[in-house]
Write a structure and sequence with these properties.
CATH class of one domain: Mainly Alpha
Structural class: mainly alpha
Largest sheet: none
Number of strands: 0
Distance between the termini: 70 Å
CATH superfamily of one domain: Tetratricopeptide repeat domain
Order of helices and strands: HHHHHHHHHHHHHHHHHHHHH
Number of helices: 21
CATH topology of one domain: Serine Threonine Protein Phosphatase 5, Tetratricopeptide repeat
Helix content: over 70%
Strand content: under 5%
């Protein structure tokens, strides 16, 4: 029965394997291997609490059962019980300390407990035992990245990609490091690789688009954001960034459509209302722009640029007193806001005319 269960497990027929392992322990309750078989099968079925119980039964019957101790540790990791997992891994390593998977899993548990130096030592021990263990290299790289040790992280990611060139997450993380180092062209190359190996990797498309915005390559950025939307249609940031990019190339109507979609998804983001207002302003739809700016300052009353832009729209409608109030709001928040100060001076000239002065419409600062 036990051999049959093992065969079913190898065939990934986990439910049938579990039934066979259960029959084996019903026949022989002290059968540690069958309890361990139950544990590893339940683990594959993501029934982690039941798996833990089975591993405990195996260990009760054989306290020196290496595979049960390691399996118990893997299961505790899944249950987010990192300290208990480490205790299990330590027991397994006392029995046999040359298993790289156990060292790697111990590193993962230590990372979750913020014991970073010990975690790196664990990953390095895994790598020492298996130089081609790319997952341990990846975990080490990821931890170094989180610790902002970017040069060392890049070396580790390069090793990952030497071993597994199509590991899209490693390319993506390399891209993120390059962004932090302001190496935007290198970041773009890395993101290109990430989406080459996994075209549906929408996070990489999103980051790629953001880099292209920074490089002022707006048409390519728009294409990237459209790939995000293809794979993740309800991604607020993609719709917003697409709108922002369209605005930069003066395609204001299309920008507004994108902003409207972003607002459908998350209507309490002041930035999208502000940007939508700017596109409407540039189309000389001043009343609609004011409505958008009103929403922006409703959600973020301290956003002085929205108050300033609202003032500009009111000025164009010759609603000078309201424009003055808006400019004063902006200046109260940011007393050195020179554009708002200049605009306030202009609107005051309109309200209290000086015969020798001429009034110009204030310039809108577009973002």
């Amino acid at each position: 029965m036990y051999k049959q269960a093992n065969t079913l497990y190898e065939l990934q027929r986990y439910q049938d394997a579990l039934s066979a392992y259960k029959k084996a322990v019903n026949i022989r309750p002290d059968y540690a291997q069958a309890w361990n078989g139950q544990g590893k099968t339940l683990y594959e079925m993501k029934e982690y609490k039941e798996a833990l119980t089975a591993y405990d039964k195996a260990i009760q019957r054989d306290p020196y059962y290496l595979e049960a101790w390691s399996g118990r540790g893997f299961t505790l990791n899944k249950l987010q019980r990192s300290q208990d997992a480490i205790a299990s891994f330590n027991k397994a390593l006392q029995l046999e300390n040359n298993d790289p998977e156990i060292w790697n899993a111990k590193g993962e548990a230590l990372t979750k407990l913020n014991q970073y130096d010990e975690a790196i030592k664990s990953y390095e021990q895994a790598i020492e035992l298996n130089k081609e263990y790319y997952q341990a290299w990846y975990n080490k790289a990821s931890l170094l990245q989180n610790l902002k040790q970017y040069d060392e992280a890049l070396i580790a990611y390069d090793k990952v990609l030497e071993l597994k060139q199509d590991y899209e997450k490693a390319w993506y993380n390399k891209g993120n490091i390059f962004v932090n180092l302001q190496r935007l062209q290198d970041a773009l190359v890395a993101y290109d690789k990430a989406v080459q190996y996994k075209p549906s990797f929408y996070q990489a498309w999103l980051s790629r688009g953001s880099v292209l915005i920074n490089l002022q390559r707006y048409l390519e950025a728009i294409e990237s954001f459209e790939q995000v939307i293809k794979y993740n249609p309800n991604n607020y940031q993609a719709w917003y960034n697409r709108g922002w990019s369209l605005h930069q190339i003066k395609r204001y109507e299309e920008a507004i459509i994108s902003y409207n979609k972003a607002i459908e998804l998350e209507r309490d983001r002041y930035q999208v209302w502000y940007s939508r207002g700017n596109s409407l302003y540039n189309l000389q739809k001043y009343q609609e722009a004011i409505s958008s700016y009103n929403k922006a300052v409703h959600y973020e009353p301290q956003h002085y640029e929205s108050w300033y832009s609202r003032g500009n729209a009111l000025f164009n409608l010759k609603r000078y007193q309201e424009a003055l109030t808006s400019y004063e709001k902006a200046i109260k928040i940011k007393p050195d806001y020179q554009q708002a100060i200049n605009a306030r001076n202009q609107v005051q000239q309109e309200l209290f005319p000086n015969p020798d002065s001429t009034v110009k419409s204030p310039d809108l600062k577009v973002f």
